[in-house]
Amino acid sequence: MTETLAKPITDREALPVELVDAAGRAVGACPVAQAHTAPGLLHRAFSVLLYDDAGRVLLQQRAAVKTRFPLLWANTACGHPAPDEPVVAAAAVRLAEEMGLATALTEVGIFRYHAQDSATGRVEHEWDHVLIGRLDAEFLRTAAPRADPAEVADYAWIQPEALRDAIADDPGSYTPWLLGVLDIAEEAVRVI
């Protein structure tokens, strides 16, 4: 008899998120779905942006089944830490789940944003921790992202300036937080 180990099914909309005040201090918790119901509750989130040795960034196109901003291009991975969960640890788990990748991550900044998805009626109101990481050329010669199709429709590498031009030319194809993530990440990369 052969047993198949299936990946456990998780209702990501039922997972808890940490609510925060205007200064980013924890003030409670609620399910993901509730935090993203209009008008939206301010909560902790993270956005990961990976770079390669050529300075390109790795983007993902969100899967069609996403409840917020489906099929739009976004940073490499994103999500929400559970209440009291360290942001870097949660981001590493989500990077592995979404893109099948692991690398050291560094938090480089935070920004707050509010955006409504006109297609789904859902809302993002997030205190977003931005993390960056690198994948070196040797790693990329032997491995590629292994994107989970339930999370990611496609992925692409692009130079940051080309990405800025693409967002300016067609902002409706990109998530509303991507430019904020890119700004913080690029400022950190210039300093490092």
Give a description of the structure.
The chain has helices at 32-35, 87-99, 137-142, 160-169, 178-191; strands at 16-20, 26-31, 43-52, 57-62, 73-74, 77-79, 106-116, 123-135, 152-158. By secondary structure, it is α+β, with helices and mostly antiparallel strands. The chain has a four-stranded mixed beta sheet, with helices on both faces.
Number of strands: 9
The computed structural class is alpha+beta
Query: What would you call the shape?
Result: globular
Count of DSSP H/I helices: 5
pLDDT averaged over residues: 92
Give, in order, the helices and strands: EEHEEEEHEEHEHH
Largest sheet: 4 strands, mixed
Q: Radius of gyration, Cα only, in angstroms?
A: 16 Å
Q: Which residue ranges are poorly predicted, with pLDDT under 50 across at least 5 consecutive positions?
A: 1-9
Query: What amount of the residues lies in strands?
Result: 25-35%
Helix content: 10-25%
Question: What is the CA-CA span between the terminal residues?
Answer: 54 Å
Main-sheet strand order equals: 6-3-8-7
Keywords, separated by commas or semicolons:
alpha+beta, four-stranded mixed sheet, three-stranded antiparallel sheet, 5 helices
Layout of secondary structure:
Layout: E1 16-20, E2 26-31, H1 32-35, E3 43-52, E4 57-62, E5 73-74, E6 77-79, H2 87-99, E7 106-116, E8 123-135, H3 137-142, E9 152-158, H4 160-169, H5 178-191
Parallel strand pairs: 3-8
Antiparallel strand pairs: 1-2, 3-6, 4-5, 4-9, 7-8
Put the structure in a nutshell.
It is found in: Cytoplasm. With 192 residues, the protein is of the alpha+beta class.
